[in-house]
Amino acid sequence: MTNLSPGTTYYIRTYVTNNTNTIVYGNQISFTTSTDGESCQDAVTLTDYDGNIYNTVVIGSQCWMKENLRTTHYANSDDIYLWSSIAEYYPFLAWRRYPNRDSLNVTTYGYLYNWPAAMHLATGSSNNPRDVQGICPTGWHMPSEAEWAQLTDYVSGQNQFLCDSTDASSIAKALASTAYWNGSSNTCAIGNNRNANNATGFSAVPAGVGGEGFGTIAVFYSSTGSHYSSDTHGLYFQLTNTSYQTFMNSLSGTYLRSVRCLRDESPMILPTITTASASNILNNSVLMAGNITYGGMDTIIARGFCWSTSQNPTINDNYTIDGSGIGEFTSNITNLSSNTTFYIRAYATLNTNITLYGNQESFTTRFGGDPCPNAATLTDYDGHVYHTVQIGNQCWMKENLRTTHYANGMSINWSHNTSSMTPYRYYPDNNISNIDTYGYLYNWAAVMHGAASSTSNPSGVQGICPNGWHVPSDAEWTQMANYVSSIDDFICGNETTFIAKALAETTNWPINNSNDCLIGNNMSTNNATGFSALPAGRCTLASFGLCEYVDFGYQATFWSTTSASGDGSWGRYLSSDNCQFNASGYGNYSGLSVRCVKD
Q1: Average confidence score pLDDT of the chain
Q2: Runs of H (alpha helix) within 419-473
Q3: By CB distance 3.0 to 4.6 Å, which of 109, 293, 317, 429 could disulfide with 313?
């Protein structure tokens, strides 16, 4: 609803008229129109590089910020230094300062800036309009003396903005906020009857000049001036609590003042940049997609994604370059830390050297290894599906084998008997319900399927494994252990052999807090590799040649293809009371778990 009177209370109801011409009314509500100016129609707010959001106001044909600028960066991400005494001796440097030397004032009063900061080292300009962007956000610019004059000329020409209808210069109250100004007894002064201030909506607040005048003066830079040295001048626009007029004046550019930005008269048509949600989130990589739609004349010379562990990342953080121009694009981002939350945005850099950013998304990388490329799962003869994990250059099953057949269809018998010659499989802890979680235990004859011992890397022994996979040799287990020991994220306590936690699953192990590097201590930090070892225990020789089930819930043991001395072969084990991943010889009659490696 438009053409309402300012500062007026209205009562309003919805209504409906039906086809019998009966009119029915809804509940009544009321509202009071603001005495401030209207927001800019197509720019109700603007956002600076830091993410600060500012309201806007239309005054005449100009669109102004109605709050003081409080950015700490230029639109190109360059930092604006916080004031120190050195600013007095180096007037060419760009500085910002807290109003009244108090950081708590920034939200209300914005920062104070010197002229080099306001201008971003641009040459002074008296043009009207859009000549010096300076410190302002993209699409906005520093007002020149002529643009400030345009503002005051317009306000002076509107009777509703005059305090004294006989004096066209009595416009200070119409530009000043209704709060924060010190009081004054002078008629038509800003500090007198402050509730009557701010008819324009400009909302000027008294941030002072440098460390002086807080509560009594509002001073705004223009882009009109000459040099940056301490004895030359930058024109500025001024209001004081005791005045009824506005002033243009000139003082040293080393002084610190407030900044208001004006919208460019012919707004830049900027790209619309969209960051899609992350997908295919793995241990150290993620797939991102973005889209850029654009109707302007500037060329997009680079596009991609920037990310950080802190919010609102920029191209000063990690970033990719994924081509140029408009349209959809993707990027597979790698070398990320595991179990870490990242913030990410798509970006576009224009040929005007302006970089714009899309919406922010976040994702958390997985804790545990990534699936093997092109082999995320494998399937055995029985149809059991197993997940995989890439560890170094090797692709491992991340679950224990639970097949009852070899790849050629020959069955593997279940038994309570132990044997070094006849292939057997066993239930972990002699309980059939354990198979889905822990897989079967197998003796060495079952694992090797008639093959000879191998020390090679790779072993060359398919044995009990599905097609395309093989039983690891001791050398292959050593390769895996050495790789894990070489990665800082996988070791515990700065001890390279303490890798048990990185290999063990986060559940099903007994709690053991006697040592930080034991599997049972804070199990949520286990399994950084994704190997997911579970304590299936083992089968060992008991009386009468029967299987005795031991260490279920406490040890994970795995066969290799490599023979040890006597009637035994090498295996590897994890134990709840040991920080290491150790090699050990086991009698070939023993029943251990099996993990296969991709050929």
Answers
A1: 89
A2: 435-438, 444-448
A3: 317
Provide the residue ranges of all domains of the chain, joining segments of one domain with +: 45-263, 272-364, 377-598
**How far from chain centre, in Å, is Cα 6?**
43
Task: Look at strands 597-598 and 469-470 and give their pairing.
Answer: antiparallel
Check residues 442 and 147 and name the one with the higher pLDDT. 442
Token pair belonging to 340: 């870490």
Q: What is the pLDDT of residue 303?
A: 95
> Do the Cβ atoms of 140 and 134 come closer than 8 Å?
no
Sort strands 95-97 and 81-82 into parallel, antiparallel or unpaired. parallel
Amino acid, res. 576: S
Question: Which residues is 81 bridged to in the sheet?
Answer: 95
Non-local (6+) Cβ contacts of 257 within 8 A are 112, 113, 114, 118, 209, 219, 220, 221, 236
Asked if the model's pLDDT at residue 123 lies above 60, the reply is yes
Q: Which CATH architecture has domain 272-364?
A: Sandwich (2.60)
Degrees, nearest 5: CA angle 558-559-561: 150
Is the pLDDT at 157 greater than 90? The verdict is: no
Query: What pLDDT was estimated at residue 248?
Result: 67
**What pLDDT, on the 0 to 100 scale, is given for residue 252?**
60
Question: 288, 354, 353, 296: which is closest to 318 by C-alpha?
Answer: 288
Tokens of 442: 């197998």
Q: How far apart are the first and last CA of the chain?
A: 73
Strand partners, 470: 597
What span, in angstroms and rounded, lies between the C-alpha atoms of 265 and 262? Answer: 8
Rounded to two decimals, what is the model's pTM? 0.48
